């Protein structure tokens, strides 16, 4: 949407190079870069670009420029988080990361200091939704010792609805017919939960219901992914068990959980016997494995080194939720407008950067910690070109 106000047009592609005229196409998206502290409770958006699609190479150039400017002010960057579109995989490859699942090295050298490494994290919540989508669409996935079937989840929901109660889990029809709410993270996390696995196991081993016969592999897979997700999404310093932050005291357990999840995902095959990581639905496997490797490497650098500055790592700090919540606040400033114009987005961005007084509205995630936007003066909120 192009608007004319204050003597100039707003809404054309703007990459910060100072060229804004009607020869450029109208912008369709906003690319936002945000910095989140892993050893404190603040976050701050550092740049935005009004774009009409960018190649992986172009996105990589923007990331490099941002890293150089952060390095110039003394900020140490450990990781880069993004979600799973193909352009982001192309961006990571252009930066120097190897995303080949059989020889993976999801990291790249810092453009300002090649001896320093930046680890690429694919948003774990997004990858979990893709795993759910793959299992539901394929109905059955094969493992070396059996089959993982979506049918057992459907049967559990059918049983709970017929009996009018739930067996200690949150599974509902919304989790089975997820297509209309496919962006909601909780509908995926509540499927891959130990409570659902326990209910399936109880129906099979204690109640001996025939419709749950052979669900052992499904139960094991749900527990494996649930444990790995908890490790990759810890947000409470006082958390217990798998939800505890990563410390030197529990690193062996965390490593075993992450390695087990990687092994389980690598062994998945579709009904034709083709490995999932080599098929059309490979993003969920490649992304989840990359996140396991990168989060572990960030933990080693931030916590385990002799001169480490952190006593523990809250892995939720490495998620994309912080940016999602910022977008939710942007939408809230426009009366929960899901499609703000470029001018509206720019105004909301600057207002939120100066002082956050807008409650987040609708979004794919909810507020999970006390990470707030680091304030800035009105002068600093002006776009730096």
Automatic annotation (TrEMBL):
InterPro entries: TNP-like_GBD, TNP-like_RNaseH_C, TNP-like_RNaseH_N. Pfam families: TNP-like_GBD (PF21788), TNP-like_RNaseH_C (PF21789), TNP-like_RNaseH_N (PF21787). Residues 2-96 form the Transposable element P transposase-like RNase H domain. Residues 316-350 form the Transposable element P transposase-like RNase H C-terminal domain. Residues 125-245 form the Transposable element P transposase-like GTP-binding insertion domain. This is THAP domain containing 9.
